[in-house]
């Protein structure tokens, strides 16, 4: 009788509001049996979407939406706006760290050593924040910085200390990026934020890296504050909602051959400008919950990559396997560890006399 009543209830609601499709569930363990998979969660969820169907709709981190939350966000947002995109002060700080990265690569190249860029990028990104907040920074090998990383290793592994971006995909097209840099920037100065509009292929490459390998494949969980709907489905108040950004960025209906790395998809028809070809591109989220550090991250990505590729040609050491894009799942997707050889480009064998 109980089963009959449940089936009858389902049929009645089939003609009214529909709940989103759900996994089979058992008492006590819920849907755990359906979540067994060798794949990381974002890939598994995309597979389940193909089986159970999508729920069309987009929503936008931790912390319930409230007056307090809005006040805190307003404070942080206002502070970041003081160093808004194009600000000379923030550009100077990032460029200083880019110069430091190039110095480290020069030392490694002179010694004939392959270098793991992960800790260097970690220090560079940390120094940008420390410079903004405390007017201080860490030198390479600074014991305090090393102790801090060691002390917080569990947290660091979870949130991915190397997660600024996995630059390996960029190396596949670095020749074309370098041609663009040579043509538009030249060898008499280093790239500036004002060059972004004249370096569309570099911009397109950064966007493609963030598409094919989003830093956070699953956006931070949200909760419905009231009864609402997503597409044709009802969502009850209190329901936890997780947006699978990986699925959006690998949707065959939105992206041709989504598993292929192709910066050209972010260029206009004549290749002279960077574009956003699909609304299913949300590397930093969207709406009121959009990542507060979006503008800063974009500036760092552009300046770090443009400086490095202007000065060096990078390659994987002979005999070392090419890293894959699968990554290690955590709060963010951590890139696979790998080393690179850096060869100074003609004219950049020494930084002496250079205006950078």
Secondary structure elements and pairings:
Elements: H1 2-14, H2 41-52, H3 67-81, H4 88-111, H5 117-134, H6 143-151, H7 153-159, H8 168-171, H9 174-184, H10 200-212, E1 222-223, E2 228-230, E3 233-235, E4 240-241, H11 245-249, H12 294-311, E5 312-315, E6 328-329, E7 333-334, E8 341-344
Antiparallel strand pairs: 1-4, 2-3, 5-8, 6-7
Organism: Liparis tanakae (Tanaka's snailfish)
Keywords: Heme, Iron, Lyase, Metal-binding, Monooxygenase, Oxidoreductase
Pfam families: p450
Description:
It is a single chain. This protein has about 350 residues and is mainly α. The protein has a single domain, classed as Cytochrome P450 (Cytochrome p450), CATH 1.10.630.10. About 40% of the residues lie in helices and about 5% in strands. It is built from 12 helices and 8 strands. The chain has helices spanning about 1-15, 40-50, 65-80, 90-110, 115-135, 145-150, 155-160, 170, 175-185, 200-210, 245-250, 295-310, and strands spanning about 220-225, 230, 235, 240, 310-315, 330, 335, 340-345. The strands form 4 sheets. The protein has a two-stranded antiparallel ribbon with strand order 1-4. A two-stranded antiparallel sheet has the order 2-3. Strand 2 (about 230) and strand 3 (about 235) form a beta hairpin. The chain is globular and about 65 Å long.
């Amino acid at each position: 009788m109980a089963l009959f009543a449940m089936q009858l209830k389902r049929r009645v609601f089939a003609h009214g509001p529909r709940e989103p499709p759900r996994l089979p569930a058992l008492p006590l363990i819920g849907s755990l049996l359906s979540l067994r998979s060798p794949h990381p969660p974002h890939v598994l969820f995309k597979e389940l979407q193909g089986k159970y169907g999508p729920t069309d709709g987009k929503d936008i981190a931790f912390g319930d939406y409230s007056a307090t939350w809005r006040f805190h966000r307003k404070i942080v947002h206002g502070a970041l706006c003081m160093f808004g995109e194009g600000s000379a002060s923030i550009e100077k700080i990032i460029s200083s760290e880019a110069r430091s990265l190039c110095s480290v690569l020069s030392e490694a190249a002179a010694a004939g050593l392959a270098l793991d860029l992960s800790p260097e990028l970690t220090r560079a990104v940390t120094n940008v924040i420390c410079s903004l907040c405390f007017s201080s920074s860490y030198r390479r090998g600074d014991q305090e910085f090393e102790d801090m990383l060691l002390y917080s290793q569990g947290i660091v592994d979870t949130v991915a200390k190397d997660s600024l971006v996995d630059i390996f995909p960029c190396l596949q097209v670095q020749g074309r990026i370098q041609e663009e840099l040579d043509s538009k920037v030249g060898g008499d100065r280093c790239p500036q934020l004002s060059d972004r509009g004249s370096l569309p292929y570099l911009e397109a490459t950064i966007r493609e890296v963030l598409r094919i390998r989003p830093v956070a494949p699953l956006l931070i969980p949200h909760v419905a504050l009231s009864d609402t709907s997503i597409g044709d489905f009802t969502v009850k108040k209190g329901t936890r909602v997780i947006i699978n950004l990986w699925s959006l960025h690998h949707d065959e209906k939105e992206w041709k051959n989504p598993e292929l790395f192709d910066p050209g998809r972010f260029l206009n028809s004549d290749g002279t400008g960077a574009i956003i070809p699909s609304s299913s591109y949300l590397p930093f989220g969207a709406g009121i919950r959009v990542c507060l550090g979006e503008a800063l991250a974009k500036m760092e990505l552009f300046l770090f990559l443009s400086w490095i590729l202007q000065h060096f040609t990078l390659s994987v050491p002979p005999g070392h396997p090419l890293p894959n894009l699968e990554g290690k799942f955590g709060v963010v997707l951590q890139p696979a560890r790998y080393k690179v050889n850096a060869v100074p480009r003609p004219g950049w064998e020494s930084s002496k006399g250079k205006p950078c």
